[in-house]
Amino acid sequence: MYKSIIFTTINFYLTMDNTSSVMKKILMTALIAAAALCTTAQEAYQPLRTTQVASYNIEAKLDTDAKMVSGVEVLTWKNTSSDTIRELMFHTYLNAFKNSGSTYFKESEFNTGYNIGNYLDESEMGYIDINRMVIVDGEPLTQDIRYVQPDDGNVDDQTVFAVRLPKAIMPGEEIKVQINFLSKLPKIISRTGYERGDYFMVAQWFPKVGVYEPKGMRQRAKGGWNCHQFHYHSEFYADFGTYDVAITVPEKYKVGATGVETYEATVGDGSKVYKFHASDVIDFAWTASPRYNIISDTYNNKGIKLIYMPEHGGLTDRYLTAVKNAMEYMEKHVGEYPYPQITVVDVPYYASYAGGMEYPMFITAETFKWMPSGVRLMEAAVIHEFVHNYFMAVVATNEFEEAWLDEGVTQFYESQIMDEYYGEGSLVNFFGVKINDSEKDRLEYTQSYNPAISTIDNYSWKYPSYTYGTMVYNKTSTMMQTLKGLMGADNFDNAMKNYYTKYQFKHPSGRDFAAAINEEVAKMNNPDLGQNLDWFFNSMLRTDEVCDYKLTKIVNRRKNSTKHGFFDTGLEKLFVDEDTTSEVVSSIYLQRMGTMVMPVEVLVTFENGNTQLLKWSGKERCKEFVLTGTSRVVSAQIDPDNKVACDIDQVNNSVTNESTQNPIWKYAVKFLFWLENIFQTVAFFA
Ligand SMILES: [Zn+2]
Fold it and tell me: Is-contact 238 258, C-beta < 8 A?
C-alpha cells in the first residue's frame, strides 16, 4: 500500500454518497451455464516455480446493481508439512465491513478518532456469506464452519473461520473443497469495493485459506495455522498457488486482473466472460469498469498492460515510463521479475481510495488530470506498487506480523528508484521547492514528533496510535538507507540479491532477512561493522533507540615550550624563550546524544588543507580526540560520507554547521502535506 502523506480519512466523508442499492438475488445456474461455455486457458504460462500449496479455481459473476459478486470456488490445498492437519482456517476479509463491531472498525476509532462503521449506510457496508462448503466428492462442511478470533477474542468479528475436517489431511496429501459464496462489496474502503455505479475494485473478495506454518518456519516453536483477523492496519499473508478465475460482467465492462488473460467472449445474455490464469502467486484481485481504456506495452520481454481512465489519457506515458524504470532498477539491483506480465490500473479520481495498492501482477495507482510534471506522486505510487511484486508477491512475508518487511523495504526501493531516475527534487520539483524521495522518508522519521515513540518490529495492529506509518514505512526506509551506507552500495546489492534469491516463493521472517544480509557482511570482513550486523538490526528494529552524535567543539592550542618567561639567573632576571616548537595540539569533542550506539567516522580538516579520518566505536557518552601536528584544525564533520541516514539530527554533526540538512526541510515537508491535500481536494471538485 502506498503511504499517502495526509491521512486518507480526512477525505473519507468527501467521497461518501448516499446511493442506496437493493440487494438482488444472483442466478447461480446462469453463472454456471455461462462459465461452461468458456474453453480452458490456452496460453498458460510455465513453468511453475514453486509448490502450489493453495490453488483456486473460481467462477465469479458481478452484479453491478447489487454490488455483489457471487462465486463458486474450488480450493486445492496441499499439506506440505510433516504434520497431520485436522482443520482448515480461512480469511473472510470482507466481513471487516459488516458491522461497527468488527475488529477493523473498532480499531479505526483509535486511529481516526471515530468508528468508521457507524457512518456507513446499509448499501456501503460489505460482507461475505458462505452459502455452502463441501469436500469435493465428499462430506458437507457448511454446518461445521465456526468464526474464530485468534487475535482479540472479539466475537463480533467474522473475518476468520475454522472448519474441522471429518478426515485428517496427512503429510503430502491434498484436499479439494468447494465453497459457494456471495460477496457484498463495500463502498471503497481499504482499497476494495465499488464507487458510483460503474467502478469496481474487487479485492480480498473470496474465502481464502490461511498459511499453515510447520515448526521452525519463521522461527515458530510449534506448527499451526497463521490466520489473523483483518485489522485496521494490516495487510495479508497467503501461500503460493495457481489461480484460474472466470469473471462474468455486463457486456460493456472491461476487466483487468492478476495473471494473464486467456479468454474473453460475450455470452449472449448481455454479459461477457473473462478468464485469467496465474501461477506462483499468493492472491488474486480484479477490477471492472465500462470506462477503462487499455494500452499494451513491453519491457524486456515482459508485458505491461496499462488500464486507465479516459480523462488521464495525457498521462499514460508517465505511468509507463515509471513502471519501466522500476523494472530496470529492480532487475539490475535485486533480481528478475519472474512473472510474464504486470497490469497497472489507473483509478478514476472519484475512486482514489482504490489507488496505491499491490497484488501479484496487478497494481493500482492514481493521478489527476492536470498533475504537474514536477509533482511525481503518481510515479512514486506506481514504482512503489511495482516493487511490492518483489517484496510481498515473490518474497511473500507475513504482512500482518512484520509489515516492515514488505512496506518498509518497498518504500526504500521506491525512494532509490525515484532518486536515480528523476534526479534532484525526485518527488517534488515545483515552484522552486525540491524534495527528494529518500530525504522525505528520512525526514518523516527523524523529524517526527518523537522518533523513539515505538519500534519497527511489531504486529501491525499493536502499534501505538498514529505511529504505524512512521515506523513501518519511514523508519524502515531510513534503516535500509543506513544499511546501504554502512555496507557500501555494491555489497548491499549483493546482500539483497542473496535475500531475494534465497527466499523467492517462500515466507521469510525478519530474522531470515537479517541472516541473509549477514552472510554478505561476513564476507566483507570489515572490522568497523563486525562479522554480522545483528547489533544494528536489533537496535533499529526491536528497540526505540535513536541515533544522534554531536560534534560539540574544536579547541586548538600551541604546544607548551620547554622554557618560556622570566627566570632569575644570579642577580638578574632574564627572559628566556627556549626550544619553542611550532606544534599545535587540537582537541575534537564529540558526544553521543542518542541511545543507539553506532560506529562513528569524523573527518577533520586542517588549516593547511590536509584531512584526517578519525574512527570511534561510538560507545562512550563523550569522546575527546587529541591531535598533535603543525596545523590547526579548522573544521570537523561527523559521518562525512552520509552513511548514517538514521542520525536524527544531522545539523549537529559539524561545528561549522555545513550540513546537507537545515530547518528549511521541515517547511518543505509541510509544503508537501499541503500540496497533496490541495490536489486531492481540488480533484474531488474537478
Ligand atoms: Zn506499500
Answer: no
- Helices 489-503 & 316-333 angle (0-180, nearest 10): 90
Ligand 1 center from residue 383 Cα (angstroms): 10
Residue 591 and residue 568 share a domain: yes
- How many A from CA of 357 to the centre of ligand 1? 7
- Asked, for residue 252, whether it belongs to a domain, the answer is no
545 near 596, Cβ under 8 Å?
yes
Q: 574: which 3 cell numbers?
A: 632574564
Compute, in angstroms, the gap from residue 4 CA to the centroid of ligand 1: 10
In a domain, 131, yes or no: yes
Q: How far, in Å, is the centroid of ligand 1 from the Cα of 362?
A: 13
| Residue 286 domain flag | no
CA of 392 to the centre of ligand 1 (A): 9
The structure's pTM equals 0.89
CA of 384 to the centre of ligand 1 (A): 6
pLDDT over threshold 80, residue 563: no
C-alpha of residue 266 to centroid of ligand 1, in Å: 36
> Cα–Cα distance between 549 and 557 in angstroms, integer?
25
Cβ density class 325-360: b for 16+ within 10 Å, e for less:
bbbebbeebbbebbbebbbbbbbbbbbbbbbbbbbb
Distance 184 CA to ligand 1 centre (A): 26
- Both 670 and 596 in one domain: the answer is yes
User: Are residue 28 and residue 130 in the same domain, yes or no?
Assistant: no
C-alpha 515 – ligand 1 centre gap (Å): 23
Residue 465 banded pLDDT, cuts 50, 70, 90: confident
407 CA from centroid of ligand 1 (Å):
5
Last residue of a domain, one of 306, 334, 369: 369
| pLDDT, tens digit, 9 for 90 and up, residues 10-28 | 233 223 333 333 333 333 3
381 alpha carbon to ligand 1 midpoint, in Å? 9
Residue 658 has pLDDT above 50, yes or no: no
Residues 144 and 64 in one domain: yes
315 CA to middle of ligand 1, Å? 22
Is 34 a residue whose pLDDT tops 50?
no
Give the burial string for 400-423 (b: 16+ CB within 10 Å, else e).
Answer: bbbbbbbbbbbbbbbbbbbbbbbe
Residues 13 and 84 in one domain: no
Please give the helix or strand (H or E) that residue 563 lies within, else none. strand 563-569
104-115 pLDDT, tens digit per residue, is: 999 999 888 899
- Determine the distance separating the centroid of ligand 1 and the alpha carbon of 132, expressed in angstroms: 35
> How many angstroms separate the alpha carbon of residue 203 from the centre of ligand 1?
15
pLDDT tens column, 285-337: 999 999 999 999 999 999 999 999 999 999 999 999 999 999 999 999 999 99
pLDDT number for residue 669: 61
678: confidence class by pLDDT, cuts 50, 70, 90: low
Does residue 277 fall inside a structural domain?
no
- Ligand 1 mean position, distance from CA 374 (Å): 22
Nearest to 281 by CA among 349, 341, 355: 341
Which of 482, 507, 542 terminates a domain? The answer is 542
Q: Tell which wins on pLDDT, 40 or 46.
A: 46
Q: What is the pLDDT of residue 679?
A: 58
CA atoms within 13 A on the CB side of 658: 9
411 CA to middle of ligand 1, Å?
7
Residue with cell 628566556: 576
Residue 439 sits in the same domain as residue 347: no
Give residue 302's domain range: 291-369
Same domain, 537 and 564: no
pLDDT at position 677 is: 64
User: How far does residue 182's CA lie from ligand 1's centre (Å)?
Assistant: 29
User: Residues within 5 Å of ion ligand 1 by Cβ?
Assistant: 1, 407
Q: Say what the pLDDT of residue 575 is.
A: 85
pLDDT at 587: 95
Average pLDDT, the chain: 90
> Residue 389 Cα, ligand 1 centroid: separation in angstroms?
10
